Each structure stands twice: as structure tokens, then as C-alpha cells.
Amino acid sequence: MIKLIATAESLSQGQALLEAGVDYLVIGESSYGLRLPGYFDREEMAEMIRITHQAGKEVIVAANAILHNDKIDRARDYLTAVKGMGADLLMVGDTGLIQILKEEAYRMPYIYDASVLVTSPGQVNFWAQYGAVGALVAREVPYVELTEMARDAKIPLMVQTYGASCIHQSGRMLLDNYFNFVGKDKTEVAEHELFLSEPKKDETHYSIYEDDHGTHIFANNDLDLMMYLDDLQEAGIQHWYADGIYCPGQAFVDINRLFAQARDAIEAGQWNDAYALQLDQKVRELHPENRELSTGFFLFDKDTVQ
Questions:
Q1: What is the DSSP letter of 172?
Q2: Tell me, what's the pLDDT at 188?
Q3: CATH placement of domain 3-166+220-294
Q4: InterPro entries in the record, alphabetically (predicted)?
Q5: What is the pLDDT of residues 6-27, one digit of tens each?
Q6: SS3 244
């Protein structure tokens, strides 16, 4: 059975996503969650978990940041709180946190999310031995390799089907350094509307923002795999992830509703190219005007991606 996973920026959006057909909500707070569209305090997280469970669905708490010693030192308190709220799963990439999850008091099932490192069934299966019940595949893995991973992986693979793709993270505060150098006040610009452009390449527009995890740079184009969802289903990949960091509010809810319609059509045996194109056109209409869509690495030949 196909499951839709989506990030939630707020309680109200989370509830709307559940009503739109999303099966798992991804939420978190600023210290442990990485590149989320909005942060929840602990009271809001507990309320979101309650609402989600009432709807018969599940919550994934993002704890997928690379953690320095100070955050590792506080992790047990955080895990105790998250577990006490009744969260269903964690999303984890830091091996220090996984080590803590081995302890009985903090043990929780988790989805392994180490970004660009999740590229082989061997790695996925290794972490399955240590509590992982799923893995978020690197966005750089093309379809031809996804099929091989799905065949050999011992736990479900989660594949991003919509949203922005981070291509670089630095632990340094690059934007602060830049604005200090040019003598500008960073507060004069909207933090999530900044772009980088390569010298003499005006067509490049890499989104960039900064938080307490460092500086994050995103690909030119956001992902849209609507036209290829049946291929994912045929490959046995049934966990589809949508990232809303650059698609706020109702538009993200409506896009997830379209993916829910696609899921229902595929499972009912009613999927066809014309319907896929119809849904894809609606996704493009809802997608933010200042951002473009593509299939990313999905259609690349395996030898193209090294």
C-alpha cells in the first residue's frame, strides 16, 4: 500500500494535509530537525501527534540534523519528551543519536536519513540492523539504481517525489559573513527568498538560507515526479515524500491532495498517461512562481551519476 509522507509547517497545515490524504506528517523543532518548513514547540508537537493519531495516521519527528556535542548531551532529554508525546517514528542521520537509541529507555523505530549518503542497499541494510525501519534515499540516485536498491533493501525505501532538494550544507554562517563583508543588514531581506547565481551564468538561481545548523543551498529546480509515480510503484517503492520548505501554505496542501489522487488511481488500476499529465499540470499551476520544476536525477543514466 502506497503511503504519502509530507512535512508540516504548522498545526493548521498539518491538519489540512491529513485531510488531503497524507499518511505521515514530518514535524520537528529547530535544534534537532533539519531544513523543515516550520518549527513546532513541544506543546505544538504533542498536539499535532494527538490530532494525527485521532485521524488514524502517524507522525515522524525529524531529528535528522548533524549534531554537535552540546546537542548530543541534551538528546536524551529530547528523546524522552518525544517518546512521551507518543511520536511514532524518528527521522535520524547522526550516528551519535543512533547510538543513544540503542539504550532501552530511548529506543524508538527510526527512518535513516543521512542525505547524500543513502545510495546503496548495503548501507540501508546495515542500519536496519540497528533499529532503522525505513530509509530516505538520496535525491541523487536515479531510477535505474532505485530499482536495484528496492530489490535488495530489507526495509522500505522512502523517495522524494516533490519539493526542494538541498545540494550543499556548510556548518559556517556564510550569509552572515557575506553581509558583514559587504556592509549590508541581512534583516532587510526575506531569509528564504535569497538566491545564489554562478558568475556569468544568469540562469542559475540556487536558493540559500542560514539557520543554527549552518548554511543550506538548494538545487535550481524542485522535484516533481508525478509523471513517474507508476514506475516507483512497479519498482516496489511505496513511500513517497513531499518537502514543503519552499512551497508554503495551502498550495502545498493542494499539491499533496493531487499526489493522493494519483496514489488512489494507481492502486485502483486507473492510472494512465493522460491522467498523469492532467495532475502534473495542476501541480505546476500550484507550484511557486519563482521556482522551476524538473525530475532531478531521476531519469539519469546510472553512469552519469558518480
A1: S
A2: 59
A3: 3.20.20.110
A4: Peptidase_U32, RNA/ubiquinone_mod_enzymes
A5: 999 999 999 999 999 999 999 9
A6: coil
Cell of 45: 508537537
Long-range contacts of 132-138 (CB under 8 A, 24+ apart): 133/89, 133/109, 134/89, 134/158, 134/239, 135/111, 136/91, 136/111, 136/112, 136/160, 136/241
User: 114 is written with which cell numbers?
Assistant: 543521512
β-pair partners for 51: none
Relative to beta strand 214-218, strand 201-211 is antiparallel
| Residues belonging to the chain | 306
Q: Are 156 and 136 in contact (CB under 8 A)?
A: no
Handedness of CA 275, 278, 284, 287 (dihedral sign): negative
Output the pTM of the full model.
0.91
**Is 102 buried (19+), middle (13-18) or exposed (0-12) by CB count in 10 A?**
exposed
User: Number of H helices and number of E strands within the chain?
Assistant: 10, 14
C-alpha cell at 278: 492532467
Report the sign of the C-alpha dihedral through residues 228, 230, 146, 248, in that order.
positive
pLDDT 10s digits, 209-263: 777 877 877 888 999 999 999 999 999 999 999 999 999 999 999 999 999 999 9
CA–CA distance, 161 with 258 (Å, rounded to integer): 12
**What are the boundaries of each domain within the chain?**
3-166+220-294
Which stretch of DSSP H or E encloses residue 205? strand 201-211
Residue 1 gets which letter from DSSP?
-
Which whole-number Å values give the CA distances from 225 to 27, 222, 231, 242, in the listed order? Answer: 23, 10, 10, 10
- Upper half-sphere CA count for residue 268 (Cβ side, 13 Å): 9
